[in-house]
Amino acid sequence: MSQYDVIIVGGGPTGLACAIEAKRQGLNYLVIEKGCVVNSLYHYPTNMVFFTTPDLLEIGEIPMVSVREKPTRSEALKYYRLVSKHFDLAVHVYEEVLKIQGSDGNFKVQTRQRTGQEGNYSARKLILATGYYDKPNPLGIPGEDLPKVSHYYREAHPYFDCDVAVIGGRNSAAEASLDLYRHGARVTLIHRSARVSDKVKYWLRPDLENRIANGEIQALFDTRVVEILPDCLRVAPSHATDGEGDVRTIKNDFVFALTGYHPDTEFLQRAGVQVEPRRMRPVCNPETRESNMPGLYLAGVIIAGLDTNEIFIENGRHHGKQILADLVAKLKV
Q1: In Å, how far are 48, 123, 158, 203 from 181, measured between CA atoms?
Q2: I want to staple 107 with a disulfide (CB 3.0 to 4.6 A). Which of 32, 102, 237, 301 is the partner?
Q3: For 219, phi and psi rounded to 5 degrees?
Q4: In this structure, are strands 248-251 and 232-237 parallel, antiparallel, or unpaired?
Q5: Residue 304 belongs to what H/E stretch?
Q6: 3.40.30.10, 3.30.390.50, 3.50.50.60, 2.20.28.90: which CATH number matches 149-257?
Q7: How far is CA 275 from CA 101, 128, 265, 282, 283, in A?
Q8: CA 130 to CA 314: how far, in whole Å?
Q9: pTM value surpassing 0.85
């Protein structure tokens, strides 16, 4: 069994930032990532532009350069690859953590590798930086599991000349709707609220509203989807009961249910971390990021529970310094 001072679960920007600090402190560390490096960013829309500036995505004090004021997904992926290579970070990709047992000073981590083989590791300390992007919020309606439904949007070309529904009213839904429209899809935006969210990026909101006003994108506000069928959707007013008189049918080929994501709190609880039931926030010391489980630290957006809009790369990247300062001090005791 391989033994480490600290194992970091999650190879996103926050996990990599923690690994950089662990390496700087001379610790024997390992990052375990179930997908590729910065896996969540890889699954962002192909042509996505970040809302923030390059300096706020930097880790390890390595400058990030972008062609324009705001970096693209492609530029971010390149940057984090280069940072990982620069520091020669120890990262196991395509290896999923299945079980965490033990306690402070002697944690046991069981994994499944890409080949199907089992991995077993021992660590004195653990850092969980697992993010939330791989846990979409379900609609909870019939037909949600049909092949035509996706909770992730990548690019528009496959949907040319198709009837596409986008469910949601925030940034992801706005970006997908505009991109699909500009690539020849017939787009219907469906949102439970009376209008697009005020939090939509300032350069997207007027564009989307103008397309809706011109009839180029159909918008069904105050509307919910009640059933997804192979060739159509059944929708009803958000406030309506399930009476058949309130339901109508619209033609549909594909659905993007962009209704947000949530952390894997079940994984945290299986590891012994207590989770507040209302907002699903894990117990965590705000100064050290140590959970109720001594020796087990939390980093990045998982700290926020359901309030995923509180922590982004911009502030989660600083958790590494916080955690390693406390972690190293305790290892020396």
Answers
A1: 15, 50, 12, 17
A2: 102
A3: -120, 130
A4: antiparallel
A5: none
A6: 3.50.50.60
A7: 18, 14, 7, 4, 6
A8: 16
A9: yes
- Taking CA atoms, 322 is separated from 58, 131, 139, 316, in Å, by 16, 18, 37, 10
Q: Say whether pLDDT at 222 is over 90.
A: yes
**Rounded-to-integer distance, Cα 274 and Cα 268, Å:** 8
CB 155 within 8 A of CB 245: no
pLDDT of residue 245: 62
Q: What's the average model confidence in pLDDT over 234-244?
A: 78
66: which 2 tokens? 């972008």
Where does the pLDDT of residue 295 fall: very low under 50, low under 70, confident under 90, or very high at 90 and above?
very high
Listed residue (178, 149, 180, 150) closest to 162, CA to CA: 180
192 is written with which tokens?
Answer: 């439970």
DSSP H/E element including 41: helix 39-42
In eight-state DSSP terms, residue 60 is: T
Instruction: Give residues with Cβ within 8 angstroms of 206, minimum separation 6.
Output: none
**What is the C-alpha separation between 64 and 55, in angstroms, rounded?**
6
Matching fold, domains 2-135+261-331 and 149-257? yes
pLDDT in tens, 54-110: 999 999 999 999 999 999 999 999 999 999 999 999 999 999 999 999 999 999 999
